[in-house]
Amino acid sequence: MNDAFLQYKFEDKVAIVTLNRPPVNPLNTQVFQELLALFAELEVNDEVRAVVLTGSGEKAFVAGADINEMANLDLAGVHKMNKISRTVFTKIETLTKPVIAAINGLALGGGLELALACDLRISSDKAKFAFPEVGLGIIPGGGGTQRLQKIVGQGIAKELLYFGEMFDAQRALSLHIVNKVVPADEVLSTAKDWAKKLASKPPIALQMIKTAVNAGGNTDIESGLTIESACFVNAFSTEDRKEGLQAFVEKRKPVYVGR
After folding, report:
1. How far is 213 from 210, CA to CA, in rounded Å?
2. Are residues 161 and 150 in contact, defined by beta-carbon separation less than 8 angstroms?
3. Chain-centroid distance, C-alpha 201
4. Are 237 and 182 part of one and the same domain?
5. Residues 51-98: tens digit of each pLDDT
6. Residue ranges making up the domain that contains 241
7. By the 8 A CB rule, do 212 and 227 touch?
8. How far apart are CA 185 and CA 27, in angstroms?
9. TM spans, by residue (predicted)?
10. Which is more confident, 247 or 172?
11. Interatomic CA distance for residues 91 and 232, integer angstroms
């Protein structure tokens, strides 16, 4: 399936989604609508075990929101766009399958918010990052102020948000904003390799890990442990748990079916 601004491929149980608005792949209402529809389909497609999200070309992953669209919006229009962006980023964050951002270039503003909504982030060594919104008299509106601080802490988050300055991939790595930095020509292949490894693992166990980490990270330790316990029991009740333990005993590679 290819929409106007999205390209989609399926390889070895991995969905590869490419934002295609060259040269810098800005986000607008139509892109958000297409992302929401596609990720809803990926959620219910049992053949898909992991997702890679990237941008077209070599210049940008996503260089922010479409300023031309935003500049012409009234308050009601801004509210509507903000609502759909928040819905899309939450959909990606809560997808029951791992989502890996392959950051092939600039990740600015809404593009960085999009990357932060993913589970894992592989970055090109040439990528650049920023939340430049303050220079436009606005602030991030797609979760940037919230997701960023959970990764880097409030002090660093305020520094990056207050100054809005560009930083490189190595600083993004040192701040744990990205998981790995690779040469530019290896970004997509590395992300696909990670996704294929995840696609071979038990889907429900991965889903329970994601639920436990995401939900537990937004609460106190005791509530988090309760969430973890429920997720543990859910994973333990699956056929895949039986297969995993049996394969271990029989010294063979397990074959997981997602039940």
Report:
1. 5
2. no
3. 19
4. no
5. 999 999 989 999 988 888 878 888 898 889 889 999 999 999 999 999
6. 203-249
7. yes
8. 24
9. none
10. 172
11. 23
The β-bridge partners of 167 are 129
Say which residue the tokens 């442990």 belong to.
225
- What phi, psi does 121 have (nearest 5°)? -135, 120
Asked if the structure places residue 259 within a domain, the reply is no
Q: Among all chains, which residue has been given the structure tokens 């300023």?
A: 67
Element (DSSP H or E) covering residue 51 = strand 50-55
Same domain? For 155 and 182 the reply is yes
Pair 104, 14 in one domain:
yes
Give the pTM. Answer: 0.93
Catalytic positions: 113, 133
Same domain, residue pair 110 and 167: yes
- Residues 178-216 have pLDDT tens digits of 999 999 999 999 999 999 999 999 999 999 999 999 999
Q: DSSP strand E in 125-223: where?
A: 128-130, 167-168, 180-182
Statement to judge: residues 185 and 212 lie in one domain: no
Predicted confidence at residue 1, as pLDDT, reads 55
Residues 132, 216 within the same domain: no
